Sequence to fold (341 residues):
Amino acid sequence: MTTTELETTAKMMVAKGKGILAIDESTPTIKKRFDTINTESTEENRRAYRDLLITNPNSNKYISGMILYDETIRQSTSDGIPFAEKLVADGIMPGIKVDTGAKDFALHSNEKITEGLDGLRDRLMEYKTLGAKFAKWRAVITIGSNIPTNACIEANAHALARYAGLCQESGIVPMVEPEVLMDADNTIETCYDVTEKTLSKLFATLKSQDVSIAHTILKTNMVISGKKCTTQANIDEVATKTIECLLKNVPSELAGIVFLSGGQSAELATAHLNTMNQKNKDLPWPLSFSYGRALQEPCLKAWGGNSSNIEVAQKALLHRERCNGLACKGEYDSKMEDAAL
Fold:
């Protein structure tokens, strides 16, 4: 493990006023996104779309890292520059999704376990040579009738810890992502309880496997009402409950925390992050973002699969990146959305 390298990368990932753009959708997932804009999901179309995301002028003012997919880290810009090389030249850390997806958890109906540990050491070594500075592994925790079970939380925490150890051994910063889904009808209180159990077990397991917490990034859900809940918690309540849960369960030595958007609208994800940073100036770790759809969606719609729309699409992306960069400092204002219209 090269401690200095890990420390440098982790600090850059959560640099003040910057966050992570997640562009690591699997091929089936990006096909669904392309279907919404009536664009065929060919390798060249996927490359062209990721090209406009990666080469967006001035993105490095607000973006510290990008999470790539296996296909993407092997591709290049329209000018022939490998994507990872282009990102590093712009001061942006290239990351890589390394899990192979959430699969049905044996003997546990409606629960998932993330796979991908087999051969991971060798894959990390290859990704390192391709330019990856950090990696991401997503675990899925579902809220429902009598779930999540302790078995599901424990199994996913164990996999996350094994992955994190392999990353640090390779000189790659691990981003651990235990996502408590927001798709059910649960209250914010239920989300709090499940998130607390998940984070508590995760960090206990990381420590038991000697993972360096100081060289780890947490990507987590906000404590929020389920989408189908009749009572939706307001922005202040989400911010308060989320910070309370994090302070109680996340070690102070952690390098930083980035939030996933989890299906929130672009504006709401930004407002939640802003309120957390506005009301909490002395947290032990930086609070930032690692959004996929909440950053990409306006850009994807503006692009529409048409190369003549690249400039307007990049402007839409930069607007969302700027808003979230300001939210990292508690300086976002919803009036900024009107100014961009």
About this structure: Residues 188-208 form the longest helix (21 residues). The longest strand covers residues 134-141.
